[in-house]
Amino acid sequence: MARLSHKVCLITGAAKGQGAAEARLFASEGARVWLADVLDEEGEAVAAQVAGTYRHLDVGDESNWEALVDEMLAAEGHIDVLINNAGIFRSNRMVDTPIEEFELVMQVNCTGVFLGMRSVGRAMKNAETGVIVNISSLAGMASAPGAFAYGASKWAVRGMTKTAAVELARYGIRVNSIHPGAIDTEMLAQIPNGPERLVRGTPMRRAASAEEVANMALFLASDESSYSTGSEFLIDGGIHAV
């Protein structure tokens, strides 16, 4: 039987990279997939591939979230899984980070995750079931020199995940975070010397594919992880163990 059969799943940042890989995998496992992003042309293309539904979503906009959740509940009756995948990267050391850059990164990577959890969490609380998976980063487990705002946002995601997990557990809702290391996506290419530097420091000596992150998300979204909540799941080729 498909691992997400009959589950309604919302994936943000689903137009490309990890989000698109998650959408494809979830659909193949029987989920009814809703994809959200600000890259409409790319998002529509992925939705067509997976027979899913695409909607424009600025994750930092409260009204966008409310409208999307209302539409999903009207169409589907319930939301079983939220994958908070949308995120951006900016490269600057702390003393060189403009306030505008810090606020932008936090708005997308941190506020966006909060609004998603709150909006979908309310519906899940009423249903007394649900799964939320927040995509953090290896930068949410250790320092991120040269990417101060990004690191701060991903630590925030890790912390919010734990608190939400404790608050929502009594309602049958599980909340976990995934912490990718070097993943072969466009974001990795944005890191100065990122591919070479990160892969060189990774014990497995390679970057992961977006599909490998999707497999982790699938495990956490499925009933196979039914006793896991409030935890960090690393997919980093061993680099955090060094």
Order of helices and strands: EHEHEHEHEHEHHHE
CATH class annotation: Alpha Beta
The amount of helix comes to: 40-55%
Query: Numbering strands along the chain, what is their spatial order in the largest sheet?
Result: 3-2-1-4-5-6-7
Overall mean pLDDT? 95
Overall number of strands: 7
Q: Report how far the terminal alpha carbons are from each other.
A: 39 Å
The gross shape turns out to be globular
- How many domains, as an integer? 1
C-alpha-based Rg, rounded: 17 Å
CATH superfamily: NAD(P)-binding Rossmann-like Domain
> How is the quaternary structure best described?
single chain
Q: Counting H and I runs of at least 4 residues, what is the number of helices?
A: 8
CATH architecture level-2 label: 3-Layer(aba) Sandwich
Supply the helix-strand structural class.
alpha/beta
Quick recap of the structure?
By secondary structure, the chain is an alpha/beta fold. It has 8 helices and 7 strands.
Notes on the structure:
The chain has 242 residues and is of the alpha/beta class. It is built from eight helices and seven strands; from the N terminus they run E-H-E-H-E-H-E-H-E-H-E-H-H-H-E. The chain has a seven-stranded parallel β-sheet with strand order 3-2-1-4-5-6-7, with helices on both faces. Helix 4 links the parallel strand 4 and strand 5. Helix 1 crosses helix 8 and helix 4 runs parallel beside helix 5. The chain is globular, with a radius of gyration of 17 Å.
